Amino acid sequence: MGKKVLVTGVLLASCPVLVTAALAPSPWLFAAAVLVSYAAEPVLPKAAADRLSRVHLGVTVRFLAREVAAVLLLARLGLPFVLLAGGLFVFHAMRATQTGLALCLHRWHHLRPVESRNLQVALPEAPPARLLGQRGTRLLCFDVPPVVLAAVAGLTGETWPAVAGIAVTLTAMTVVTVVLGLRLRGAAPVADRRRVIHLVDERVRAYDPEVILYFSGAANAVYQASMWLPVLEALPRRSIVVLRERPLFTALAPTSLPVLCIPSAVDMMNFRGLDSARVALFAANVGNNIHMLRVPGVVSVFVGHGDSDKEASFNPYTKVYDQVWVAGPAGRDRYRRAGVGVRDEVIVEVGRPQLAGISEKGPQTRSVLYAPTWEGWTDDLFHSSVAAMGPHLVDALLAEGVRVVYKPHPLTGHRSMTVRRAHGAIMARLRREHPDAGTVVLGPEPSLYDCFNDADLLISDISSVVADFTASGKPYVVTNVAARDRAEFVTRYPSAGAAYLLSEDLRELPEILAQLSKGPGEDELAEARRALRAHLLGDGEPMARFAAAVEDAYEQGLMKQVL
Which regions form coiled coils (predicted)? Predict the structure, then answer.
């Protein structure tokens, strides 16, 4: 706080000092003030800069104040100032031109009607981001040479330093403007929306897709689509990924599959390259799904992004799909109990092909994976344990000499400030206070499944993490934030049927950790976990079951097209 106030104060005070020094005139005071003023700009905290902009003292005003003061200084000293004033005027005209060119190039290259990956579409490459970033207020720093050298001119009584400064600035601006102009000329093919759509459409038609993974949502939810990429890559059918928001395009995990991003609903509904597809897989229930659901001749399948006992896994919206794919019998039972209108005959049990690499072996060091879910949209569902017990739980585990791996849900703290503070406290404990005994895993790597293999015990909330972890056969703990008795809890959340329950006061934790010492598969709930695993995830080889379900859906899609 002190640094922010100090830098802001220095920056604001320098402007009247510069004007006063120019009018006095006092070249030495002006030179000192201009150096201090420029030095304060890059260290000004962003929050302070935003506040200054809100009271009309933004960066443009501050740079213009220094330029006006430099012109006044030369005028008061009786030195020729017209070249400096005229040069600064030309500089700002060139700045406007350069900004316009950069914005135009950015729009053509980065706001295309259709973005594509792995389709070899013959379009000009986008200019370097560094070149396109040289626009707007970022160009104001080019006024440093003429203003600083104007101060030198005031000290020496010679005009040429200020003229040299203007020459340097205008030369640099001219070079960048010419480069942008040449790039703009070469980018003409991407300026034509129809041409871009046509070129991408041709490549998609040549690929002749049969299965679509369709996804829409925020960039921080892209993991919901990314988890299906390796599965689709292994299918014998030609698959393609269709995204609806631009941030998703760069956030999506690496894949060998063709990827499209079509932001506009009109472009999406008129894009003919996808007409050959007969199956569309949906990983989330969102409004933009309607643009794919309306396409005739395509079997719509809700695959979700993990089976859990949370309300999201039996959403009434799900009945709009032709089929609903679940991992095992537990998924079918959820829809039966919920009575949300999803007919039993449209539910298909396909297993969880993502879990093929999960091992039943634990690490050499006794390790606990704490993988809580996020807080959800309301507090009454008690989704997350982060705020209620997260920091206390981590402290208790570390005190027991257990290595802790913390892998929170990507949306943790998205809605609740209380959860966000608790999440920060956990990370601080593991990163700063116990870096040798704890690991914080944020982002896609290592994956959740890698973390499964690096743990002897899972502690989680009610979520798909619990069901997926049963594939390992290792013990798991489910947090009981709402303090329900076990019978009620298991009835409400069947995936916890083979779990150790943990109350907010952590009173069960010592006994749970004692169970780990009995060895792999020897604790009191080991047999219950083996029985529950089949109920949650189904029997058989999941990739084969998934591929067979795709084939059945594809055949149905062919029949729909005929009818």
Answer: none
Distances (CA, A) of 374 to 165, 308, 468, 505: 55, 14, 17, 20
Task: Quote the mean pLDDT of the chain.
Answer: 89
Amino acid at 448: L
Nearest CA-CA partner of 314 in 281, 350, 341: 341
* Angle at the Cα of 472 from the Cα atoms of 470 and 476, rounded to 5 degrees: 55
Helix, strand, coil tally for the chain in percent (to 5): 55, 10, 35
Q: Decide if 515 contacts 475 (C-beta within 8 A).
A: yes
Q: Are strands 115-117 and 259-261 parallel, antiparallel or unpaired?
A: antiparallel
Q: What percent of the chain has pLDDT over 70?
A: 98
Tell me which H or E stretch contains 438.
strand 438-440
The model's confidence at residue 323, banded by pLDDT at 50, 70 and 90, is very high
Half-sphere exposure of 374 (CA within 13 A, CB side): 16
Interior angle at CA 396, CA 392 and CA 398, nearest 5: 120
**Which token pair is 301?**
């399948």
Summarised one tens digit per residue, pLDDT across range 463-496 is: 889 999 999 999 999 999 888 999 999 998 989 9
CA distance 159 to 41: 27
Predicted pLDDT of residue 1: 53
Report residue 160's pLDDT band, with 50, 70 and 90 as the boundaries. Answer: very high
Evaluate if pTM is beyond 0.85: no
For residue 434, the model assigns a pLDDT of 77
Judged against a pLDDT cut of 80, whether residue 437 lies above it is answered with: no
CA distances 514 to 70, 257, 362, 523, Å, are 75, 46, 16, 9
Supply the DSSP symbol for 109: H
Report how far apart the first and last C-alpha atoms of the chain are (Å, whole number).
Answer: 69
Q: At which residue do the structure tokens 């031109």 appear? A: 97
Does the pLDDT of residue 96 top 90, yes or no?
A: yes
Return all residues near 110 (Cβ < 8 A) that are at least 6 apart. Answer: 126, 246
Tokens of 148: 């600083």
Residue type for 223, please? Y
What is the sign, positive or negative, of the torsion defined by CA atoms of 418, 423, 428, 429?
A: positive
Residues whose CB falls within 8 Å of the CB of residue 29, separated by 6 or more in sequence, listed in order: 17, 20, 21
Can you list the domains of the chain with their CATH numbers? 2-188 (no CATH), 208-351 (3.40.50.2000), 356-537 (3.40.50.2000)
